[in-house]
Amino acid sequence: MSLALEFLKRDALIAISYRTAFVTQLGGNIVVLAVFYFIGKMFAGTEIEALDRYGGNYAAFLLIGIALTDSLGVSVSTFATQIREGQMTGALEATMMSPVKLWRILVYSSLWSYVLSALRFSLYLALGLLFFSVDLEKANLAASLLVFVLTVCSFAGLGMFWASIVMLVKRGEAIMNLLGGAFLLLGGVMFPISVLPEWLQVLSSLIPLTYGLEGMRLALLQGFGLAQLAETILILGGFSLVLITLGIVCFNASVWLVKERGSLTQF
């Protein structure tokens, strides 16, 4: 635990030391929020049956979709980014000589990114509440927090799996872009999945983002509690367990394979 806190403290100090980049990133998040708010505003006063389950406010529906998806991007990309940087700088080989397992170092080095993603998610909600007329009076914070954590854990498993691919093939942005587009289409980020054809809804049920967004929207916009979201929480818990286990196993296997090939330092 002390090692994890040291990594967190180090990365926080580094991030804050670059004040311009830190502030600019937050400013960019605000601009993105404004863009999607005005998209949602086009539908103000329009009754959309598919949104009734979430309170009927498309701006609020879209806000939560963008906020959660933005936060989850950290889980998918942070481990692979560290691996790629280590390959490019030559630091990966030295890191692997540490007595601490590489996957643990990756997790510890990502803690600040996760903290920042949670703060960014909170910022989206706060700005939506204060300036964009998003109603969160019914919000069940305990249920939404649990859904958030489980969804992040699910995507952390995907992130470890993605890092194992980067370890082996070095470059794979095209694969990530394809998966990102598929998640955007099937996860219900910008529209309810109920508008999709049935066969796409089946595919949608196979990804954790669908359940994360469903649970988050119902908890924040409709006040659903733990009991009402029990099925969603159990499914997300199952995704977390399976994907984290799979991610660690695949990552360890990829490390063993590159050592056997002698391709650890190749980039």
In short:
The chain is an all-alpha fold.
Report on this model:
The protein is mostly helical. It has one domain (2-261). It contains eleven helices and no strands. It is globular and about 60 Å long. The two termini are 32 Å apart. The relative contact order is 0.14.
Give the arrangement of secondary structure elements:
Blueprint: H1 2-17, H2 19-41, H3 58-89, H4 91-96, H5 102-109, H6 111-131, H7 141-169, H8 173-186, H9 198-204, H10 208-221, H11 230-261
Helix pairs in contact: 2-3, 2-6, 3-6, 3-7, 3-10, 7-10, 7-11, 10-11
Core attributes:
globular, mainly alpha, 11 helices, 267 residues
Number of helices: 11
State the domain count.
Answer: 1
Beta-strand content: under 5%
Radius of gyration: 20 Å
Classification by helices and strands: mainly alpha
> What fraction, in percent, of the residue positions are helical?
over 70%
- The number of distinct β-strands equals 0
Largest sheet: none
- Average the pLDDT over all residues and give the rounded result: 78
Shape: globular
Low-pLDDT parts are none
